[in-house]
Amino acid sequence: ENAQLKDIISHAKEYGFVYPSSEIYDGLQAVYDYGAYGVELKNNLKRLWWETMTRVSDNIVGIDAAIFMHPTTWKASGHVDSFNDPMIDNKDSKKRYRADVLVEEHAAKLENEGQVEKARSLTAALARLLEAEDLAGVRDLITNEGIKCPISGTSNWTDVRQFNLMFSTQVGSVAEDASTIYLRPETAQGIFVNFLNVQKTARMKVPFGIAQIGKAFRNEIVARQFIFRMREFEQMEMQFFVRPGTELDWYQKWADTRMRWHLALGTPAAKLRKHDHEKLAHYANAAMDIEFEFPFGFKEVEGIHSRTDFDLKSHQEYSKKKQQYFDPEINQNYIPYVIETSIGADRLFLLTLCNAFTEETTEEKSRTYLKFHPAIAPVKAAILPIVKKDGLPEKAQEIVELLKYDFNIIYEDAASIGKRYTRQDLIGTPFCIAVDHQTLEDNTVTIRHRDTTEQERVAISELHGRIAEATSF
Ligand code: ATP
Fold it and tell me: What residues does ATP bind to (predicted)?
């Protein structure tokens, strides 16, 4: 793994952001837990997304649908038939790989070695075979190219088989007539099946949107790069229902709106780009990703898709329940078209961590700190009495009382003040508030700013306003 990513992963673990799941049992691949500061950061990101969608945007309401859904949902959505990855096993190492990834990595290697033409024709051949669902052809490509297993070093491969990414489980007792259901691989379907419920009960008029944050599960085979690709993750999705024919305007509008949101959160423009899909999914008539430059390259953080009426139409077909909307402005019934914005909360978390991770070396010293926008920082301020006597701890606690109902505040009185500043830098706290003997006389404190390390004297009565201003948009 990339050196910078390694530093970020160990920082995240050491300072209470992200741990491997069930670590005492050596972890569970592609599953992670969030620690004390991690959960605060993640909640802040989710809340910001939620507020932007349901409060700031016009005509969007939220829902919270269940993870379990009627099995027919996944027939209608296409996930039962086509949510597959082509897999191949090496007979010697018994390791399983994604066949397409093996070929792509081989092509990348050839390209690095200067065989650009060869690499291009290989990826083109792969694309043709995948398009034609010619799995035997993909296997031939792998064996003819002599692509070897990175573990065993042999090219003794099995056939290529499709492997569905959905996790399944049984409902009801196993002895009874149990039926198989799936853990949802995306949150979107919970919105589609509730389209009419929400439209009617919240009295929405097209164009309107439904937003949801929730867990999704995918049995990803290529589980790498920390929380970039997980088996259990959280999605923040919004489906915006529009009149047919207006969808491409809305698509543009949402692509721009979402890009502005990322910029407002402090992600530098140079690290973001839009990437139009060359190959559209069968249900889409336009699609793009917002990509971020992770330490391992530009990769998708958010997808914006124009999904036409595919989902509602398909649910209408399978459920035999009309999914139409009567548009009073044009006196017509229709199935609305849908623009979707879909972002992973964990992937946004990783983006935020990568952006914030700062290693600074000046002539005097070097320091590491997390430069979060104050609005998303897990802890907003640390209240630090410079000594643990003379009534300073009590005075500091009064300040905690003043702030703790509106902000996440930490109180700390152990170790030297310098060490305590360092510790707050490492978790990204924007303000350290030092309480000293002068505080007892004139009710002022020192604010030490994380990014500049500069200090200023401020009246206690000003603290609430100062923090509120810095932590809002
Ligand atoms: P990728 O190509 O990276 O697998 P995708 O195109 O399958 O992603 P979508 O199905 O469009 O992704 O999901 C929307 C968003 O959900 C992605 O942009 C990403 O932020 C997030 N996401 C998808 N799969 C995962 C995962 N396994 N772990 C973490 N986040 C994920």
Answer: 218-220, 228-233, 300-301, 344-347
Query: What is the spatial distance between Cα 69 and Cα 72, in angstroms, rounded to a whole number?
Result: 8
Which CATH fold topology does 379-470 show? Rossmann fold (3.40.50)
Q: Find the 456 Cα to ligand 1 centroid distance in Å.
A: 44
Q: Residue whose CA is closest, atom 20 of ligand 1?
A: 344
pLDDT in tens, 20-70: 999 999 999 999 999 999 999 999 999 999 999 999 988 999 999 999 999
Q: Strand, helix or coil at 350?
A: helix
Task: Report the C-alpha gap between 362 and 103 in whole angstroms.
Answer: 45
pLDDT over 70 at 297, yes or no: yes
Residue 424 labelled as part of a binding site: no
Where does 84-164 sit in CATH, by number? 3.30.40.230
Per-residue H/E/C for 137-199: HHHHHHHHCCCCCCCCCCCCECCCEEEECCCEEEECCCCCCCEEEEECCCCHHHHHCCHHHHH
C-beta 233 within 6 A of ligand 1: yes
The crossing angle, in degrees rounded to 10, of helices 345-356 and 3-14 is: 100
Give me the sign of the Cα torsion angle 309, 314, 317, 322.
negative
CA of 347 to the centre of ligand 1 (A): 8
Q: Return the ligand 1 atom nearest residue 220 CA.
A: 27
Taking only the tens place, the pLDDT of each residue in 225-254 is 899 999 999 999 999 999 999 999 999 999
Q: Which amino acid is at 396?
A: A
CATH topology for 3-68+194-354 is BirA Bifunctional Protein; domain 2 (3.30.930)
DSSP SS3 for 343? strand
